[in-house]
């Protein structure tokens, strides 16, 4: 006896992915709407307390995004595991280790700028993914999802590096995450962050190369004509 259409494995996978993308889209839409409304209401003052206003939702969205590694691993989402792992790890470290752990960093302008960049990329990506799962395709949206990262992603990395740089004095003063080990050994966390800064730019080159390769392959399969734009 044949299973109902909604119980077919492919349909269940698509339904799950649609719900996941919808949750992410709603979260990032809320962040974008909140940041926009606050900026028009309070101007530059809204940038200082961006983390206090939307930090929890951003943490939730970025935490849920770790499911994407599982999606790729089990094969329900077509993507490369290592580049996505590097992208997610990059954000998790900056958000939870650098920003969340230092209250003084949370009020910096760079946090607002970083959240704007992350939000722009994710809103476009999740919108395109959500519609693609249900068979709706817009050429311009696909093109935008494969193009927007080109100027935005390097700016994201620069903002992340600047956030790390601004956090160093506070990690040095408060000794957060620095610890002593047996045999007169110790971990001085500011040194770890300085090493991470170098790794950040090495990772950017790898991820940028991967995304550029994906975009090149995409444009071969889905050429965008001016009349479609």
From TrEMBL:
Gene Ontology CC annotations of this record: endoplasmic reticulum membrane
Membrane topology (UniProt): Multi-pass membrane protein
Transmembrane segment boundaries: 15-32, 52-73, 123-141, 148-168, 188-208
Signal peptide location: none
InterPro entries in the cross-refs: Tyr_Pase-like_PTPLA
Pfam families: PTPLA
Subcellular location, principal: endoplasmic reticulum
Pathway assignment: Lipid metabolism; fatty acid biosynthesis
Any GO BP annotation: very long-chain fatty acid biosynthetic process
Compartment(s) of residence: Endoplasmic reticulum membrane; Membrane
EC number: 4.2.1.134
GO molecular function ontology, one term from the record: very-long-chain (3R)-3-hydroxyacyl-CoA dehydratase activity
Cited PANTHER family: VERY-LONG-CHAIN (3R)-3-HYDROXYACYL-COA DEHYDRATASE, VERY-LONG-CHAIN (3R)-3-HYDROXYACYL-COA DEHYDRATASE 4
Function in brief: Catalyzes the third of the four reactions of the long-chain fatty acids elongation cycle. This endoplasmic reticulum-bound enzymatic process, allows the addition of two carbons to the chain of long- and very long-chain fatty acids/VLCFAs per cycle. This enzyme catalyzes the dehydration of the 3-hydroxyacyl-CoA intermediate into trans-2,3-enoyl-CoA, within each cycle of fatty acid elongation. Thereby, it participates to the production of VLCFAs of different chain lengths that are involved in multiple biological processes as precursors of membrane lipids and lipid mediators.
UniProt-recorded name of the protein: Very-long-chain (3R)-3-hydroxyacyl-CoA dehydratase
Organism taxonomic ancestry: Eukaryota, Metazoa, Chordata, Craniata, Vertebrata
């Amino acid at each position: 006896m044949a299973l109902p259409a909604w119980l077919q494995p492919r349909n269940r996978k698509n339904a799950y992915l649609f719900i996941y993308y919808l949750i992410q889209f709603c979260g990032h839409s809320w962040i974008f709407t909140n940041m926009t409304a606050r900026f028009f209401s309070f101007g530059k003052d809204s940038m200082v307390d961006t983390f206090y206003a939307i930090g929890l939702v951003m943490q939730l969205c970025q935490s849920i995004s770790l499911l994407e590694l599982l999606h790729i691993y089990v094969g329900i989402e077509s993507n490369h595991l290592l580049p996505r792992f590097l992208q997610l790890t990059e954000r998790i470290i900056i958000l939870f280790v650098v920003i969340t752990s230092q209250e003084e960093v949370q009020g910096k302008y760079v946090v607002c700028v970083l959240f704007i960049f992350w939000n722009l990329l994710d809103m476009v990506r999740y919108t395109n993914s959500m519609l693609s799962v249900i068979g709706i395709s817009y050429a311009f949206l696909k093109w935008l999802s494969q193009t927007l990262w080109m100027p935005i992603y390097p700016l994201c990395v620069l903002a992340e590096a600047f956030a790390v740089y601004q956090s160093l004095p506070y990690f040095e003063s408060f000794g957060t995450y620095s610890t002593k080990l047996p045999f007169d050994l110790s971990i001085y966390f500011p040194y770890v962050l300085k090493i991470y800064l170098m790794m950040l730019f090495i990772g950017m080159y790898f991820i940028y190369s991967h995304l550029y390769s994906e975009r090149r392959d995409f444009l071969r399969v889905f050429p965008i004509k001016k009349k479609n734009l």
